[in-house]
Amino acid sequence: MNKKYILFIIYIGFGLNMSLSLAQECPTMTSPLDGDINVPLDNLITWTEVDGIIGYLVSLGTTPGGGEIINRRSSGLNNYYQPEIGLPANTRIYVTISLFLPDAPIKVCPLKVFDTASISEPPNCTTLASPLNGESEVRVDTNIKWNYAYGATNYSISIGESPGNYNIIENHETGNTLFYRADQNFALDQTIYVRVVPLNEYGMALNCTEESFTTGVPTVQCNTNDFPSISMPDKIPFCTSAPNAIYTANDIARGYRWYKLNENGTEQVISNTASMEYNEVGFYRLELFNTVSEFGATIECPVSKIFEVVNSDIPVIENVIISRDADQYRIEVVATSPTPVEYSLESADFGFQDSPVFIGIAPGDRIVYVRDKLGCGLSKRPVEEKLEPKDFPAFFTPNGDNINDYWNITEEKRKKDPNIEYIHIFDRYGNLLAQVNPQTNGWDGTFNGKDAPEADYWFKAQMFSNKMIKGHFSLKR
């Protein structure tokens, strides 16, 4: 055979197979048949299987192409569908079956039609589908489901905790549905009595019996891993500089409760979130809990911690005392605060220590930081106060009248601790007359036990950082 004819035949065959795949046949409805009448309202809708597809979509409507009953409901690869709540009576039903094709758009098949049977009497009673009558250990949050009653278009449900006493709900119409969920959970270890009565336009089912089920009793217990961790400190601050305070727990839990402990021994819930807003000192309690569930009931696994809100504020630095130790310095910070503080010479953010004393400090300008441990704030102060010649008196009068009898750095600067190591005093010829400790009264105007004459004198103040302040003053008698 000529080769070109062989190739032509193969090409034609391949094209036919591809065309057949694309032109997938639609199924034939087998129950009911297209055009059937008097079809039962609970009839199972079936059709022939179709090869090469990945699923079916079913729509049932009362108008051509409509989906008033079910709209594009998937039946998977099952070639049947059971209407859960039945079909409306004496109605023309339009059926649309669509095919899921691999790598192709959904194929919508031609409509099929049938007419349902007529009814002229009320429906019969139904029975519980879930929970079953007599079932035990049922979840307290269960949905109540019942079976379809032929011809029903509505259902009336009554629920109670004793036979014939429907204290939970009575004669509640659910519409054309097959389930009901109570607004609240049922009680644990409780027998629940249920009566479901089907209805339609001709009336309601008669003499429907009451059924019952019993909820479970939780046996679950809190294990170690079920409890949250709690890291609440013993004390938190009530900062007078920020009276409207908010504290947020650092621990993760399913739930939070904050209590204010009253003096009469009662507790008052002030928050159910991770944060607590407070505006007064006193004792409080934080409760954290996780939950575990069984039969729909929730059990809490709580932990709690009592803590105190205490008055606090930004620390006040009263003084910084510096002393020389060889070529290094010892710095002691004097600060006041109603709550514990910590100290740093490095930064406002790190390097803090509990001790107010720093040793082995090299000379140089520094800033001391004092921080409230509870978080109320931070104060800072230069280790050396800036000095100028004007910070020293221009004259003094050592005449024994107890007024201005001594010469030293001004009282105002001395209270601020200028960190002067010593002050040397010289006459106009440069002779050293006295060395003054700035923490004493000062120079009394004598030299070698004798009164120095009225004259101008010079001073040189030596700072701990080796900075020098020079100036002059007058002695008057």
Descriptive overview:
- It comes from Maribacter sedimenticola.
- This is Gliding motility-associated C-terminal domain-containing protein.
- Pfam families: CHU_C.
- There is one protein chain.
- The protein has 477 residues and is mostly beta strands.
- The protein has two helices and 36 strands.
- Strands 3, 4, 6, 7 and 8 form a five-stranded antiparallel sheet that branches. Strands 11, 12, 14, 15 and 16 form a five-stranded antiparallel sheet that branches. It has a five-stranded mixed sheet with strand order 17-23-22-19-20, with no helix packed on it.
- The protein is elongated, with a radius of gyration of 47 Å.
N- and C-termini, Cα separation: 146 Å
What best-fitting shape do the alpha-carbon axes yield?
elongated
Q: Provide the gyration radius in Å.
A: 47 Å
- CATH class membership of the largest domain: Mainly Beta
Tally of distinct domains: 5
What's the pLDDT, averaged over the residues? 90
CATH topology of the largest domain: Immunoglobulin-like
Report the portion of residues in β strands.
35-45%
User: Helices and strands: which structural class?
Assistant: mainly beta
Low-confidence segments, given as residue ranges, are 1-22
The second-level CATH architecture of the largest domain is Sandwich
Query: Helical segment tally?
Result: 2
Could you outline the blueprint of secondary structure elements for this entry?
Layout: H1 3-22, E1 29-31, E2 45-47, E3 55-61, E4 70-76, E5 80-81, E6 92-100, E7 107-108, E8 112-115, E9 128-130, E10 144-146, E11 154-160, E12 169-173, E13 179-180, E14 191-200, E15 203-204, E16 211-214, E17 235-239, E18 245-248, E19 255-261, E20 267-271, E21 275-278, E22 282-294, E23 297-312, E24 316-325, E25 328-336, E26 341-344, E27 357-361, E28 367-372, E29 378-382, E30 395-396, H2 411-415, E31 420-426, E32 432-436, E33 446-447, E34 450-451, E35 455-463, E36 468-475
